[in-house]
Write a structure and sequence with these properties.
Methylamine Dehydrogenase, Chain H, Immunoglobulin-like, 4-stranded antiparallel sheet, 2 helices, globular, disordered N terminus
């Protein structure tokens, strides 16, 4: 691992969760600029996926759980990009019986007959044939109406996709081929139906309820409206009989009498029975005299996250809570969903998985099962054939990636104090995880056996007067020294033989804005201080490790954005930030950084950057890579688009494979296929030789390499690994003119099977040399 080039993730997962919640509640225009980047250009880029000069190898998709819908004892769930089917005939022992990957992160699922209608966060919607629940089949996808979606609903033969951009209606009388029929040109957070009436909740503060005559779904006509004051928009609604239930997360749940649509009356409210924090009800289901509410708040009396309430609504003027479940290892203010079926309530908790309750007696409900999906992939590091992923409240996951094409879950560790992990750095059989919720604490987790990880030590920054919020750990000097980034600056440690950290010194930068990233390069540490739409660059001299000195402070390198990531190649420092911005500084004299230029790579924040050889890799909503053999003149050579816009962390293994984590989509294992040739030319052509791309690629275990000679010549064809070590010579002889084909079976010169990874094959003919990459995936 290139520990000297490790870059931390300084966009807190908690901040990201709050920004997602804020986007849903208020709309994009009122969100902090750090994540105010969603617009149609990104959606269109995602829709027209390029994935140039990259190949997707393996995937881990079963991640953050956002959607559930149940029919009888069968539950359909959306976890990241995974559409799963579970049998809950035995409520305490659910069985996963089917599933498939959807091309984008799943936001909501609605089941109708033999089909599941699935809407993504940004990329459109999908139809899944579930006539055989053990073998669901994707039969339709639509990205023509991609937007910042809120959800999906069905009514009769019609499908309603509602988003910040509007309400779009499709005819689904032929379920596998929805046809557009009409749309409403205003943002809609939810839509519900009562006989021939359609109720919409428009984006904007308070409940902006529109009542439509929907007797002709191809032409809904507004006939009434209702407005309820408030600071946030109404996010979810439910209709039963002549009552409409709605929630304004952070304020209250309201009950409306809609028996007379021209005189709609508020007849009840409920704020969550919390003296300090009102309830965040993300979803409501009503059955009989009870409302089942997916909550998302923090119980100040217990210090736990509230995820589920049951309230008695038989008397709307006196609504009473009859059941509450607190999750001791979860978070608040994230996406929740609830579905009720057959005496069971299923609650999807974005960070902590699926909770199933026996509600046969609602006032004495019981938790029957907790089904853990993945959490929120906040950070990744790779070492010794394993990817270690910080999954927020789900803990630290170890993924076996020895076969990158088929990554497998290997183990899990749960933090004992706050149960929250948002960053990870691996070094010498340990994973180091700062805990932002416990003052100045970082835990060293023993990963010598990934299937049985355990915390071996917890350490503090010694005598450093640092503000809390440890954020990242970086190792350097061959892993013998370490740096932990705190709000006020970097703290330095020696690494003991057992992996523990021994405090040495610190560099106190301080200020009202936090250190968002640090980078060690030789005798210098580069620090970004950022927040509130500006950033400063500091340089610390650590040649005297016991007494680091601040030698440079460049104020306001930007004044209109925050900066989050750092990378370096030779004397060029890259600084990544909001709106896809990467700045370049000449640091040939570290005491006097010189701003060279900047270039855009998209519109999402540049969360993380890595330099490997002559390439700069970036996690910036999606994945972008640059050729930087001349670091002052980066060339955009490739990209990979995930199923959402939250790719925020990456790692590179010794074979050169890239591990990209997306907050919604999961883990992507990607290869860099750039060969230096034109993007439109899959072959490398020199004066006498044409070298073609091997086929198949990736391969397992046999691949064919073809080349052509204009004239007979002495030819060598050799295989190398990414370390430059020769693996095998396939040809070393005189070859006639014409086209030739050579088979490689994945065996090295010692007659041993080689491991999965990226390999180079080099053809030399006289003075002509051609080189290309190939991927072995077992």
């Amino acid at each position: 691992m290139l520990n000297e080039l490790r870059i931390g993730k300084k966009v807190s997962i908690i901040s990201l969760l709050l920004c997602i919640a804020g986007t849903l509640l208020f709309g994009v225009n009122e969100i902090n600029s750090k994540t105010n980047y969603w617009n149609n250009s990104i959606i269109n880029e995602q829709r027209n996926t390029r994935n140039e000069n990259t190949t997707l190898g393996g995937r881990c998709t079963k991640e953050t759980l956002t959607a559930v819908d149940a029919v009888g004892d069968t539950l359909f769930m959306g976890a990241g990009e995974f559409f799963g089917v579970l049998d809950y005939s035995d409520i305490e022992n659910p069985v996963e019986i089917g599933g498939l990957d959807i091309p984008a992160g799943i936001l909501e699922i609605k089941i109708k007959d033999d089909y599941a209608y699935v809407v993504s966060w940004f990329a459109g919607f999908y139809v899944v044939d579930i006539s055989d629940v053990t073998n669901p089949n994707l039969v339709y996808e639509n990205s023509d109406y991609a937007a910042r979606n809120y959800g999906i609903e069905t009514n009769g033969d019609y499908l309603y996709v509602h988003s910040m951009s509007g309400l779009v209606v499709f005819d689904i009388s032929t379920p596998a081929n929805p046809e557009f029929v009409t749309s409403l040109p205003f943002g809609v957070t939810d839509v519900v139906f009562n006989d021939s009436l359609m109720f919409t909740s428009a984006t904007g503060v308070g409940l902006q309820l529109g009542v439509f005559d929907n007797s002709n779904p191809t032409n809904p006509t507004q006939i009434s409206s209702y407005y309820d004051n408030g600071m946030v928009l109404a996010f979810t609604m439910f209709v039963q009989d002549d009552r409409l239930y709605y929630s304004k997360p952070g304020e209250n749940m309201g009950i409306l009498d809609i028996s007379d649509i021209n005189d709609i009356q508020l007849i009840g409210q409920y704020s969550g029975s919390m003296p300090t924090y009102p309830a965040f009800y993300w979803d409501i289901v009503v059955e009989g005299d009870y409302a089942y509410l997916a909550n998302a708040n923090y119980d100040v009396s217990t210090g736990e996250a509230v995820i589920f309430d049951i309230i008695n609504i038989s008397n709307p003027a006196n609504v009473t809570q009859v059941f509450r479940y607190n999750n001791p290892t979860g978070s608040e203010n994230v996406k929740y969903d609830v579905s009720v079926s057959n005496g069971k309530a299923f609650v999807a908790h974005q960070s902590s998985g699926l909770f199933t309750f026996d509600i046969s007696d609602p006032e004495n409900a019981e938790l029957s099962n907790h089904y853990q999906t993945g959490g929120t992939m906040a950070a990744v590091d790779v070492t010794d054939g394993y990817a270690y992923i910080a999954e927020g409240f789900a803990g630290l996951y170890a993924i076996d990636v020895n076969d990158p094409a088929s990554p497998e879950f290997a183990g899990k560790y749960q933090m004992e104090q706050s149960n929250f992990i948002e960053n990870v750095t691996a070094n010498n059989n340990h994973a180091y995880c700062p805990d932002p919720w416990v003052q100045n604490s970082t835990t060293g987790i023993n990963i010598s056996d990934p299937s049985a990880m355990f915390d071996e030590f917890t350490f503090m920054p010694g005598g450093a007067p640092m503000v809390p919020l440890a954020d990242d750990v970086e190792f350097f000097d061959n892993g013998n020294k370490a740096l932990i980034s705190y709000w006020d600056g970097p703290v330095f440690f020696n690494v003991a033989d057992d992996g523990n950290l021994e405090f040495v010194s610190y560099a106190f930068i301080g200020g009202f804005q936090p250190v968002t990233n640090t980078l060690v390069a030789g005798d210098y540490v580069y620090c970004i201080i950022s927040g509130n739409g500006s950033a400063d660059l500091y340089v610390v001299d650590i040649s005297n490790f016991n007494a680091p000195q601040i030698i440079s402070s460049t104020y306001s390198i930007v004044s209109d954005k925050n900066m989050w990531s750092l990378a370096i190649k030779e004397n060029t420092l890259f600084v990544g930030g909001d709106y896809g911005t990467i700045m370049m500084f000449d640091v040939s004299n570290p005491a006097l950084p010189n701003n060279l230029s900047q270039f855009p790579i998209g519109e999402a924040p540049v969360y993380e950057m890595k330099v490997r050889d002559d390439y700069l890799y970036t996690a910036a909503g999606h994945f972008f890579m640059f050729e930087i053999s001349d670091p002052t003149s980066p060339e955009n050579i490739g990209d990979f688009y995930t199923g959402s816009v939250w790719a925020r962390s990456l790692a590179v293994d010794d074979a050169g494979l890239i591990y990209l984590t997306d907050y919604i989509g999961g883990l992507y294992i990607i290869s860099n296929d750039y060969s230096g040739s034109s993007a439109d030319d899959d072959n490398v052509i020199t004066a006498n030789v044409t070298l073609q791309q091997n086929y198949p690629n990736p391969f397992n275990p046999i691949t064919s390499i073809s080349f052509s000679l204009e004239k007979a010549d002495n030819v060598s064809l050799e295989i190398f690994n990414l370390k430059g070590q020769k693996v095998k010579t396939l040809i070393d002889e005189r070859v006639s003119s014409g086209t030739h084909q050579v088979i490689w079976n994945g065996i090295n010169s010692n007659n041993e099977k080689v491991s999965s990874g990226v390999y180079l094959y080099k053809l030399k003919s006289g003075k002509d040399t051609s080189l290309k990459k190939m991927i072995l995936m077992k």
